[in-house]
Write a structure and sequence with these properties.
By secondary structure, the chain is mainly α. The chain is built from ten helices and no strands. Helices cover about 55% and strands about 0% of the residues.
Length: about 180
């Protein structure tokens, strides 16, 4: 039996698709995306040059940002949580973190189980469990996605993206010769 770090494997968007998504939502620079999402500049540049896989949550985030009012909501959430003058050794934009109690309350309000939230974001269930227990810091993109998921129609859109990108499981190891 295989134990996988993640329950689901996802198709990845390409660097070109990410660049097109940035254009579609009006993101004009890597810096602008980093400020909103909390992602590191070098990481985003590696995504855009194709040298690093783009995480699943980025596809969901970019899709949700196309919804009316979503970019304004994302900017508001990110600016409200932005830490001014972060430590010079850290990434350029830092945001205050959502607490495990806040995440739990949001997931309850959204009627999302840990498993469903993991599937939407592409995070491992174990990671979401650690976030919910307060064992691991919750990345800013989680706060952002939780806020965007409250926009009418966003949950259906996020689920559609996740469903479209999940790679169907094939369990060749369980097949036996008769």
């Amino acid at each position: 039996m295989r134990i996988m770090a993640r329950r689901y494997q996802y198709e990845r968007i390409t660097a070109r698709q990410l660049s097109d998504a940035f254009n579609d939502v009006g993101i004009k620079s890597v810096d602008q995306f980093c400020r909103i999402s909390g992602a590191g500049e070098r990481t985003v540049r590696r995504w855009l040059d194709g040298s690093e896989n783009i995480p699943h949550y980025v596809a969901v985030l970019c899709t949700l940002l196309t919804m009316p009012g979503a970019m304004q909501e994302a900017r508001a959430v990110s600016e409200a949580r932005l830490i001014e003058n972060p430590d010079a050794t850290a990434r350029r934009y830092q945001h205050t973190r959502m607490t495990h109690r806040q995440l739990s309350a949001v997931l309850n309000r959204l009627d999302l189980s840990m498993r469903k939230f993991a599937r939407l974001t592409g995070a491992a269930e174990r990671t979401v469990d650690r976030w919910l227990r307060g064992v691991e810091d919750i990345p800013h993109y989680v706060t952002l996605l939780c806020s965007l998921l409250t926009i009418p129609g966003a949950m259906a859109k996020a689920k559609a993206v996740a469903d479209a990108m999940v790679i169907p499981e094939t369990d060749d190891e369980d097949e036996t010769d008769a």
